[in-house]
Prior knowledge:
Oligomer: single chain
CATH superfamily of the domain at 2-107: Gcn5-related N-acetyltransferase (GNAT)
Strand order of the largest sheet: 1-2-3-4-5-7-6
Helix content: 25-40%
Amino acid sequence: MIKIIDYKEELKEYIRILNYEWLQKYFEVEPNDVISLADPKGEIIDKGGFIFYASYNNEIVGVVALLKIDEEAFELAKMAVTEKYQGLKLGKILMEHCIYFAKANAIKKLVLYSNRQLGPAIHLYEKYGFYEIPLEPGHYERANIKMEKVLE
């Protein structure tokens, strides 16, 4: 059974563990990753953001964060699903949860940064109505595409 769980201090390590897993596989861990993933409460929660975990059979297997940009816009970030459980549609479930949560909390826009080599992720984002917008330099070294979704 899959459950989505809000951030709890006792789960804080999972955002680092799950993100390091995919970052080390495809890219490298950047200095900003080290900072935000070492202190998710201070760097995400205390700055007005949110973290959600996916639990499967009582094991934390996925994570996603919404980073506050301003009152109406958040960055969908830090999404990761452990390789062992990919194929269970956990990315889809986390995405749907974030969109539902954003709409319920009057968030008007979600943006995200990604890399075109992550084809399945880009396809997921497009499926949920994200479209490419101009990418400003310097946000993430690995990012070569920026996308946004305007919420009704």
